[in-house]
Design brief:
- It catalyses: [protein]-L-glutamate 5-O-methyl ester + H2O = L-glutamyl-[protein] + methanol + H(+); L-glutaminyl-[protein] + H2O = L-glutamyl-[protein] + NH4(+).
- Pfam families: CheB_methylest (PF01339), Response_reg (PF00072).
- Its main location: cytoplasm.
- The chain has 336 residues and is an alpha/beta fold.
- The chain has 2 domains: 134 residues, 3-Layer(aba) Sandwich (Rossmann fold); 180 residues, Methylesterase CheB, C-terminal domain (Rossmann fold, 3-Layer(aba) Sandwich), CATH 3.40.50.180.
- Helices cover 36% and strands 20% of the residues.
- The protein is built from 11 helices and 14 strands.
- A 7-stranded parallel β-sheet has the order 8-9-7-6-12-13-14, sandwiched between helices.
């Protein structure tokens, strides 16, 4: 059983989260707290396996509480907050939170696939506590091949659980004059996309913006796929597909990767970062078959080694790299 501490200033929200977690049978809520200070004290007392944390609370807010908890405990923290604190929720990942979800997800009408997805993510995140101490001893498996110089026309990136924090490190290492547009599918909570763009802009010299219909991607910019619709590329620029979910995701990286591979061929680089599931794996195969260059994050630096592993297992990944090496490699590969 995963011992969980729920921290939120709303009695109703704490009750909803407790019912949600314990309905699975794999979680037990061992404590509740109505503010960050109480959450910090109960975390030290109870030593839980997982903590859920609101952002805006009296006495001590969630951001400060996360920082204080991380000083004394390795317990993973997941933020569960509202749309109006989206930017702060992403900032929490830099402070030490592992993931975040909108409170709007936790309703009686929750999609059953979404329910399973969140519960499985929380279980894997809780498991990072036991493996974190061993990360330094993991070997990096980097596979290289001779890649001829070619004009790179775009970079496409897929990320999910653990992605926001990983993206701050990756994007901080890219210059403002990066010579190709970067297009990102981050599996965001519905409605959090604008806050994500505003937040990520503070961590990179690139201009970060939401992709728009008919927009032609330009170098030095990072385009983010909006939530709740698939982003694809064609000869007219960006386009949206309002079809069904793919890999239980919308937007899905696979659709972006495939459309970009068809359009750009060997002028494309794809990157699959940390995340649950297999989104980006099939797209990676398309990029490889089209002559593009394919990268994936290694297990040691991935919060959840699901998407990168699925991509690697296709046999179509050219390079497996630790997170801190990906930006530098992108700079090298885009030099003509």
């Amino acid at each position: 059983m995963i011992k969980t501490l729920v921290v939120d200033d709303s009695d109703l929200v704490r009750s909803i989260l407790k019912d949600f977690l314990e309905s699975d049978g794999g979680f037990i809520v061992v404590g509740e707290a109505s503010n960050g200070r109480e959450g910090f004290e109960k975390a030290r007392l109870l030593n839980p396996d997982l903590i859920t944390m609101d952002i805006e609370m009296p006495v001590m807010g969630g951001l400060e509480a996360i920082q204080e908890i991380r000083k004394v405990l390795p317990t993973p923290v997941v933020v569960i907050s509202t749309h109006d604190t989206a930017k702060m929720a992403y900032e929490a990942t830099v402070k030490g939170a592992m993931e975040f979800y909108s409170k709007d997800n936790f309703t009686a009408t929750m999609n059953p696939f979404k329910r399973i997805q969140i519960l499985e993510a929380l279980k894997q995140i809780a498991g990072t506590r036991s493996r974190r101490a061993g990360l330094a001893n993991l070997n990096v498996n980097e596979e290289k091949k001779n890649i001829l110089n070619r004009a790179i026309l775009a970079v496409v990136i897929a990320s999910s659980t653990g992605g926001p924090k990983a993206l701050t490190r990756l994007c901080a290492g890219l210059p403002g004059n990066f010579p190709a547009p970067i297009i990102l599918v981050q599996h965001n909570t519905s409605g959090f996309d604008k806050g994500f763009v505003q937040w990520l802009n503070d961590y990179t010299p690139l201009e970060v913006k939401l992709a728009e219909q008919g927009e032609l991607p330009l170098s030095g910019k990072l385009y983010v796929a909006p939530t709740d619709k698939h982003l694809i590329m064609d000869v007219n620029g960006f386009a949206f597909d309002n079809g069904e979910m793919v890999n239980n995701q919308k937007p899905a990286a696979d659709l972006l990767f495939k459309s970009a591979a068809k359009l750009l061929g060997k002028g494309l680089i794809s990157v699959v970062l940390t995340g649950m599931g297999a989104d980006g794996a099939e797209g990676t195969r398309f990029v490889k078959n089209g002559g593009g260059i394919t990268l994936a994050q290694d297990e040691g630096t991935s919060l959840i080694y699901g998407m990168p592993k699925a991509a690697f297992d296709t046999g179509a990944v050219d390079m497996v790299l630790p997170l801190e090496s990906i930006a530098g490699r992108l700079v090298e590969l885009t030099k003509v």
